[in-house]
Amino acid sequence: MTRGGLAAKVQETRLWSRLMALAAIGGTAKGGVCRLALTAEDGAARVRLANWATARGFTVSEDAIGNIYVRRKGTDPTLPPVMTGSHLDTQPTGGKFDGVYGVLAGFEVLEALEDAGVQTRRAIEVVGWMNEEGARFQPGCMGSGVFAGAMPLEAMRAVADKTGATVGASIDALPTVGVSRDFGFPVHAYVEAHIEQGPRLEAAGDTIGIVTGIQGARWFAVEITGSEAHAGTTPRAQRKDALMAALDGIQALRAVMTDPDDQVRFTVGRMEVGPGSPNTVPGRVFFTIDFRHPDAATVQRLGDLVAPTLRAAAGPCGIAITETFTGPPVAFDPLVIEAVTDATKALGYKHHALPSGANHDAKFLARVCPTGMIFIPCLGGVSHNEAESATPEDCTAGARVLAETLLALAQ
Ligand code: GLV
Ligand code: MN
Ligand code: MN
Ligand code: MN
Questions:
Q1: In sequence order, what E strands does 295-387 have?
Q2: Which residues bind Zn(2+) 1 (predicted)?
């Protein structure tokens, strides 16, 4: 098939209608999506994808950590497959594109191959990685982390959400969507399409981002233990106020977690105060820290300051700090970057190369096979927000680049 021939088979209306069909599963009143990992909504999205896949003759399978795979056969079953995909779960106030776009762009490529009657030597597998977001179960990128051997399967299946429900029990409660499988090595290459989730492509007026790698990240869970006391009577010197200790620690970290070129990303995204009564001094505070930076040495140095800085600020309170995720920066494979670049140029899209600020499953796949990513713009760079938006044209452009890239890699 000539270059661009497969891209021409990518259908904008089909891709868009699938995006909107999945956006309705967990759709919110404000136009966003709440489809937390392994909930009934996530299960329903998986069933929908599996139904589309089997209707088209593709094979569906799932593994012990809840990743779902849609496979289109190659002509040589002895060759390792090419993989693509992303995730079906969302943030609690997530949008219609973060994650699901990469899965459906991959699925659209399988359909385009069918429509074109093109056989590839290698099988192509579209994967929905379980719990990329890390909103319900920490850490995120759990399905790809286990797949890549970076997280232990049994320990991850034992992770519980706020209500005590475990990953393992939640996977077992999902509707079955395909045959059970092993993780499935080796993998020839992995390419993930995603909205940029930042403002750079839009600002440059470019349609395609050729992703060079992913910045480093360290996540922490912090538990501060004080002592409950009467708010009206307890003098300051006698208080062990867990919330004041948390605030002092976070304030001290804000001073440390800065840099002149605004590359440090420091977020306290979740905080629980116990017992949560207006007139009781808080005896317990739990909060999370998400810290990221593109440079490995800075990830190490600033990340290492988290525990001592919080401890120094804890005063009379007890403090327990757990590092729940450690991910050094990742550089993508030059051959995959080149394949994406060639496809983008052949299709004539305006593009530039950029690193990813957000985490992606590609970060773990990069440990086990040559990996790369394709970004498309999103409105205002807004993501992890119900207002997240991308145009049908850009979604199609990304799927076309993905199609030509996968075709080249699967021959
Ligand atoms: C998930 O979306 C992340 O980048 O943390
Ligand atoms: Mn995502
Ligand atoms: Mn996300
Ligand atoms: Mn993400």
A1: 318-327, 330-331, 351-356, 371-376
A2: 87, 98, 194
Q: The tokens 């392994």 sit on which residue?
A: 38
Distance, CA of 316 to CA of 245 (rounded, Å): 8
Domains of the chain: 7-215+329-410 (3.40.630.10), 216-327 (3.30.70.360)
Least distant ligand from the CA of 139: 1
* Those residues with Cβ within 8 angstroms of residue 24's Cβ, 6 or more apart along the chain or in another chain: none
Nearest C-alpha to atom 1 of ligand 1 is from which residue? 133
CA of 92 to the centre of ligand 1 (A): 13
Shortest-distance Cα residue to atom 3 of ligand 1 = 359
ipTM: 0.94
256 and 302 Cβ atoms separated by less than 8 Å: yes
State pLDDT tens for residues 312-359. 999 999 999 999 999 899 999 999 999 999 999 999 999 999 999 999
How many alpha carbons fall within 13 Å on the CB side of residue 287? 21
Query: Which H/E stretch holds residue 289?
Result: strand 284-293
